[in-house]
Amino acid sequence: MASRRMCRSTVLGSLALALVAGPAHAVDRRPDTATPTPSAAPAKPAAPAKPAAPAKSAASAKSAALPAPDPAALGRVLRTAVAQGAPGAMALIDDHRTAYDDHATVHHATEGLADRGAGEAMASADRFRIGSVTKTFSAVVLLQLAAEGRLKLDASVDHYLPGLLPDDRITVRHVLGHRSGLYDYTYDMFAETVPGFEAVRTKVFTYRDLVARSLRHPLTHAPGTAYSYSNTNFVVAGLLIEKLTGHPVRTEYENRIIEPLKLTDTFYVHPDTKIPGRHAHGYLTPDAAKSALVDATDQTASWAQSAGALISSTRDLNTFFSALLGGRLLPADQLAQMRRWMPAGTGQAYGLGLRRRDLSCGVSVYGHTGAVQGFYTYAFTSEDGRRSLSALANTSNNAAVQETMLGTLESAFCGKQAEAPAAAGASHPAGADDFAQ
Fold first, then answer.
1. The one catalytic residue among 39, 60, 63, 132
2. Ramachandran region, residue 277 (left: φ > 0; alpha: ψ -120 to 50; beta: rest)
3. Which of 164, 82, 140 shows the shortest CA–CA distance to 395?
4. Widest CA span of the chain, in angstroms?
5. What is the pLDDT of residues 296-307, one digit of tens each?
6. What 8-state DSSP symbol labels residue 415?
7. 63 an active-site residue?
8. Beta bridge partners of 387
9. Residues 6+ positions from 214 with CB-CB distance below 8 Å
10. Which of 431, 186, 130 is nearest to 287 (CA)?
11. Most CB contacts within 10 A, which of 80, 202, 320, 346?
12. CB 400, CB 85: distance < 8 Å
């Protein structure tokens, strides 16, 4: 039987201690809601896109202006997601705006089941696959390398990886901002949701295997002229990390982010298939209506790797994004580069591996979304990193659930001022699965 829990407590926040320290660095079938349908031939070069305008009143808003969270509304969002087909859902808010010391006000809510087979209730400490939230980790590593003088954002990718890409105008900045024009190989890989997944569930790909799949298609647009979300970009990012450091991406995630921030629930286990420790199972919704959910928990996630293979928890994701926006992971210049926005769909913009969402109350939040088979993730923080929200629904290929979970941001950052979210699924084609958004 599904369980329902909601708690509010004041706890010692290790994150608050992290935010006052110096930089640690110093020692989704369709992959994105804003991705246009790919064409067989490259589009004609367009004029370069103009940067997105800042959200009204968000960038300059003082911390006191952020509305209090609405835990009751948060619970309602999770219950709606479960009613729409998610076996379970959970969310965690860490709020350092109400206590200016080492304590955070914490709101956490859980609903439904983490494991349908065992009947285990969802728990706020459960680990899960975070999908494309991995992209922000990859971007942080490359921006740290830029800060160290080992990488130039406006250099050609082919300067570092000779002959990899078909156009030497594609820069590192284009890759991190989804403006390269590289075709997203997951369009072909997951043209049929469940058969596509089962075909790759236990496979192990190299990065170059995945790039080669992309290069079977022409560029979707001239480099630098448009935003078009593509997992191929962050496969290239993984190749860059390994070439520049001589280490696997796992080592760089651990040394540069996971260990400095003490992210004890965050793992890169590729090509192993298991999620370590207590975790939520992920359930993939088949394309055919009323078909049984598929337990997609165990997989190599090799089709995603540096674009979407990390495992984490709501606690660790809040810590990560609070530290990032709070200035602990990157020097100011690199964080500013990460936050050079380009339009990326209604109410949102994309920087370098970082997404901005503009909410109904005029507040903007910063983070990433993730969709991998069986899991939808939202992980965002305020501009100063002092309030963070991470939320999970353990299903995918369910447009209604994905849209509903956007309401967790409204509950966390707009509180009772929040407007009703858009109709569930309104911006998603029926049956689409934004695998690593």
1. 132
2. left
3. 82
4. 57
5. 999 999 999 999
6. G
7. no
8. 95
9. 182, 183, 184, 185, 230, 232, 235
10. 431
11. 320
12. yes
Radius of gyration (C-alpha) of the chain in whole angstroms: 20
pLDDT at residue 12 greater than cutoff 90: no
> What whole-number distance in Å separates Cα of residue 359 and Cα of residue 59?
12
Residue linked to tokens 């808003």 = 61
pLDDT grade for 97, boundaries at 50, 70 and 90: confident
Q: What is the pLDDT averaged over residues 348-370? A: 97
Tokens of 424: 């569930």
- Angstrom distance (rounded) from CA 193 to CA 273: 19
CA distance 88 to 109: 11
Q: How far is CA 425 from the centre of its chain?
A: 19
Bridge partners of residue 113, in order along the sequence: 121
Q: Which two tokens stand for residue 34?
A: 């804003």
pLDDT, tens digit, for every residue of 98-127?
Answer: 654 557 789 999 999 999 999 999 999 999
**Distance between CA atoms of residues 379 and 370, nearest Å:** 8
Tokens of 158: 């082919």
**Mean pLDDT computed over 120-138:** 98
Is the model's pLDDT at 432 over the cut of 90?
A: no
CA–CA gap between residue 348 and residue 342 (Å, rounded): 9
Burial class (CB in 10 A: 0-12, 13-18, 19+), 419: exposed
User: Phi and psi dihedrals of 294, rounded to 5?
Assistant: -110, 125
Which of 362, 365, 359, 408 minimizes the C-alpha distance to 385?
Answer: 365
Phi-psi region of 3 (alpha: psi -120 to 50; beta: other; left: phi over 0): beta
Residue 409 identity: L
pLDDT at 406 over 70: yes
Phi-psi region of 95 (alpha: psi -120 to 50; beta: other; left: phi over 0): beta
Distance from C-alpha of 25 to C-alpha of 135, rounded to nearest angstrom: 18
- What tokens does 320 get? 């990560």
Q: What is the pLDDT of residues 167-196, one digit of tens each?
A: 999 999 999 999 999 999 999 999 999 999
Pairing of strands 395-396, 283-284: parallel
